Amino acid sequence: MSLTQTWCEVGELAAGQHLTVPVYHFQGVNPESPKVFIQANIHGAEVQGNAVIFQLMKQLEKMDILGDITLVPLANPLGVNQKSGEFTLGRFDPISGENWNRQYQPPNFDLATWYQTYQKLSDEALFEQFRADLLESCQQRLASPWGLSSGRRLALTLQNLAHQADIVLDLHTGPKSCKHLYCPEYDLEAAHYFSIAHTLVMPNEFDGAMDEACFTPWWQLAEVAAAQGRDFHPPVSAFTLELGSQERVDLFDANVDAKGILAYLSHRHVISDRVEAEAMRRFACRLEDYKKLYAPKSGLVEYLADLGKPTTKDQALAKLLRLDMYGADEELTCVYAPLDCIPILHFASASVHQGTELYKVMTNYFEL
């Protein structure tokens, strides 16, 4: 096992200071084993992923590593340092207003045309060429003569690292949240290995997130090839792991999640050590069935639903308190579940405007 640390420059501050992120690399002994990229904390307040990377590295140091593993904690130095009083903001670029995790880019070439050019290659050579062109696409954008926004430069720099891997894990948290996994439909079997009970099944669509930037091009390539009578499974796996709530570090819980990641890496033969997946009931729903529930009016909120536990239709999820309406019927308003669901996360604040996203819930869920 060989562990090295380097620093990757992702931007500069107005006063000239260079922004860098730490990059840790475990050199594997088998070049045929899958390569792994894991990053955490692209959103400033979502710090638990750093603790998971810490626990993961502590365990990897004692293991036989077959495939290369690259880990990037504290991936967004601007976000993690974006404070307002005691709170970390860091979900949106303060200059552009864009979500830090919606600035990754799809390939800058047409996949159907690309496949026509390289269709006579063997699968192995086809994949090698496609990966090289994905990397070239990132590098061309980074070298744009028009320049880049700070968020786009950060995203493309990280994406350039991720495109070199066969397995990409992006570690996040919710506001107030139970653990959940974003998993592409073609790779749903992988959800059985992580220490996460709830899975959102993702379609073949790109919306700017890191996991989508990594798996969508390969899935689309597989579909283009299938239309020409050639079948192969997308060779790249990418997932977003939502590891509970923001503004929280729990090293014990981080060790649980690190073991779940190791169970998946063991299954994929990235490490030779055998790590068993945690036994638990696992539920999933399609992303289209992951619904948002908005506050019908403003007020102070008492959140009632237990996150991660099934809730029946018409069960109270929250109460809204309006002190300006004391003594009237509107002083307390109950918000009910519109149908059977599993609440996954809720808004972090106990005061909301009308129309605030109160909950996200899984509907039409099924057991894995």
Outline the fold blueprint.
Layout lengths: L1 E11 L5 E10 L8 E5 L7 H13 L8 E4 L4 H4 L2 E2 L2 E2 L22 H8 L4 H20 L7 H13 L4 E8 L1 E2 L2 E5 L13 E5 L7 H18 L9 E9 L5 H17 L15 E4 L3 E5 L4 E5 L12 E6 L10 E5 L5 E5 L4 E2 L4 E6 L3 E2 L1
Parallel strand pairs: 3-4, 3-7, 7-11, 9-10, 10-12
Antiparallel strand pairs: 1-2, 2-4, 5-6, 8-17, 9-11, 12-20, 13-19, 14-15, 14-18, 15-16, 17-19
Can you give a write-up of this model?
The chain has 368 residues and is of the alpha+beta class. It is 25% helix and 28% strand. The chain has seven helices and 20 strands. It has a ten-stranded mixed β-sheet with strand order 1-2-4-3-7-11-9-10-12-20, sandwiched between helices. A four-stranded antiparallel β-sheet has the order 8-17-19-13, with no helix packed on it. The radius of gyration is 22 Å and the shape is globular.
The proportion of residues in beta strands is: 25-35%
The neighbouring-strand order within the major sheet is 1-2-4-3-7-11-9-10-12-20
Flag low-confidence runs. none
What is the rounded Rg?
22 Å
Number of helices: 7
Query: How many angstroms separate the termini?
Result: 35 Å
In total, the number of strands is 20
At a glance:
This protein has 368 residues and is of the alpha+beta class. Helix content is 25%, strand content 28%.
What attributes does this structure have?
four-stranded antiparallel beta sheet, 368 residues, alpha+beta, 7 helices, globular, single chain
